[in-house]
Design goal:
- By secondary structure, this protein is mostly helical.
- The protein has helices at residues 2-26, 37-69.
- The chain is 82% helix and 0% strand.
- The longest helix has 33 residues, at 37-69.
- The radius of gyration is 16 Å and the shape is rod-shaped.
């Protein structure tokens, strides 16, 4: 668990960067020129990444609280 806890900040940073990039892509008007198909795909990916980030934050909090209890 200690190793997993150490790795989580990097995973969080990666997910946050991916979310920011997807949001940037979705803010570009050109993405909607195909009737919105690409925007829907990116939107679904964004939703998925946000859900994953929520899970990672929850896991981080859980592991952090366990590590504090062990001290």
């Amino acid at each position: 668990e200690a190793h997993e806890l150490e790795a989580l900040p990097g995973k969080i940073e990666k997910l946050e960067n991916e979310i920011a990039e997807l949001e940037k892509q979705l803010s570009c008007p050109d993405i909607y020129k195909d009737g919105g198909a690409q925007a829907r795909e990116l939107g679904a990916r964004l939703d998925s990444q946000r859900a994953e980030l929520d899970k990672v934050y929850a896991r981080w909090e859980d592991l952090e609280s366990r590590s504090q209890e062990d001290k």
